[in-house]
Amino acid sequence: MVPDTGNPNPAAAAACAADELGDPRRMFATLLDNLPGMAYRCRNDRAWTMEFVSEGCRAITGYTPEELVGSRVVAYGNLILEEDREKVWRQVQVALAARASYQLTYRLRRPDGSIAWLSERGQGVFTTEGVAEALEGFITDVTAQQNAEQALLASEEKFEKAFLASPDAISVHEMASGRYVDVNPGMLQLFGYSRGELIGCIPTELGMWVDEGERRAFLAALRRQGSVRDFKASMRLKDGRIRLCELSAEAMTIGGQAHNVTVLRDVTESRQTEQTLRDSEKKFATAFQASPMALTIVEMANGRFIETNPAFERISGYTRDEAIGRTSLELGLWSPTDRAAHVARLERDGFVRGMALTFRARGGHEVLMNSNAEVIILSGVRCILTVLEDVSEQRRAELRQATLEAQLRQNQKLEALGTLAGGIAHDFNNILTAIVVNQELALMDSHDGGAVRERLSEIGRASNREVRSAALRVARSACSSSSLTSCPCSSPSRMK
Could you read off the pLDDT tens digit of each residue along the chain, which spans 496 residues? Predict the structure, then answer.
């Protein structure tokens, strides 16, 4: 150690002293300068005024020995973070009072602003009167160690929080015996046991494993690989219920002993849901393929076919392979106007019901269709499921039915008109018959052979012609209303 003698270069002073004292002192000085840390001697004041520092101070503090000794540029005490200064002072004073060595850990700020964690070991140098005239010790940089410890603490804190908060069942076991070392609340909730019932017990003692073969396979994989992922096994709860679980485990060392941490998730409901979904998909696929109606699934954005069924192939004339990946417009199945109207209604309502469209099959054959469609999501893509019903025959049957109904209504009109015509003819006959009869009686009673008889005869002839003409006009009117090409009433034989 070289005291502060006023020499601005304590290292040079140390070297001179070493020269004077011979090789052992020189060797000691060289050793100090090459230690991974800072050797020092300082006063027992709050500035920790340095009387000597080794060359290691450069790496520790960022300052040279000349700048630190005698606080020529900066006092060492001022480099210690303000939050740690009082703690450092108090611990040193307690150690000095007990004539004991001290060990400190604190933070120091370097000239570049970085913070270093330092570990310091030292002791007091006392006068014969028992007064601490100086402190001597050694300081090392433990920043990396402190950071690692803090990271470990943070990691342990995160693990503990995740362990306690996880909804999954998590347990820690001794690898050799399988005994529970720790369990989380999720484990207790799933299996129905208390913590006291599990800690120190073995799962087989509680009958948790339903299948011994599954347990052995799980442990063999864990010992062989050091970890297991998504292992399926049936587990028995405290109340006797059996649940399908998914286990993942990792080997670890705790206190030098082999352990494993196991995460167990109850997947009973999810597996049932997946099976139900698979069954539903199978039913849909079967119904899709077997439907007598044309079914298609297309991407809504571009209209490209994703799937078609055999009925579509039969109606359109295009095979599934020919249609998949192409659009209805490319195949010429719809007019652009019809497709735009179809998509617009889907965009507006989310579905289409009974929309009449003209479907053009391969070769140009037109088929009248009713379209029913829904917007569905497949793998995150908006698609259209369309059911196409061929209503061409139905429309033709409806047209035939409408024609027959029109003819029936016409026949009913003709029947009514015939009845009316008969009544009119009868009324005419009644009136004209009286005229004809009286004309004939008058003609019989007339003895005048001249003009009177001639007039009476003309009245008879005119009356008979009028009776026949009235009947013929009514009959012709009825025939004209029926749009018939010929009318038997107009034949010469009927007019006689």
Answer: 444 545 545 545 555 554 554 566 666 667 777 778 999 999 999 999 999 999 999 999 999 999 999 999 999 999 999 999 999 999 999 999 999 999 999 999 999 999 999 999 999 999 999 899 999 999 999 999 988 888 878 877 887 888 888 899 999 999 999 999 999 999 999 999 999 999 999 999 999 999 999 999 999 999 999 999 999 999 999 999 999 999 999 999 988 899 999 999 999 998 888 888 888 888 888 888 988 888 999 998 888 999 999 999 998 899 999 999 999 888 888 888 888 888 888 888 888 998 888 888 888 888 888 889 998 888 889 999 999 888 877 777 767 777 777 788 887 777 777 677 666 666 666 676 777 677 677 767 666 666 767 776 777 777 777 766 766 665 665 555 544 444 555 444 444 4
Degrees to nearest 5, angle at CA 388 with 353 and 320: 140
**Which own/partner contact pairs does 203-207 have at CB distance under 8 Å and 24+ positions apart?**
203/178, 204/178, 206/238, 207/236
Residue 333, C-beta contacts closer than 8 angstroms, at least 6 positions apart:
316, 359, 360, 361
CA distance 441 to 437: 6
Contact 50, 69 (CB under 8 A): yes
What phi, psi does 114 have (nearest 5°)? -75, 155
Six token digits for residue 64: 């040279």
Q: Regarding beta strands 305-308 and 294-299, do their DSSP bridges make them parallel or antiparallel, or are they unpaired?
A: antiparallel
User: Quick one: which of 68, 71, 109, 106 has its CA closest to 86?
Assistant: 106
E strand intervals along 203-328 = 227-236, 242-254, 257-266, 294-299, 305-308
pTM over 0.70: no
In sequence order, the 6+-apart residues with CB closer than 8 A to the CB of 473 are none
Burial of 296 (0-12, 13-18, 19+ CB in 10 A): buried
- The closest alpha carbon to 298, from 371, 376, 238, 352, belongs to 376
What size, in residues, is the chain?
Answer: 496
Strand partners, 249: 228, 262
CA distances from 255 to 80, 163, 174, 395, 489 (A): 36, 19, 11, 86, 124
Say how far apart CA 158 and CA 136 lie, in whole Å. 41
The Cα diameter of the chain in Å comes to: 200
Tokens for 56? 């290691």
Please state the separation of Cα 293 from the chain's center in Å: 32
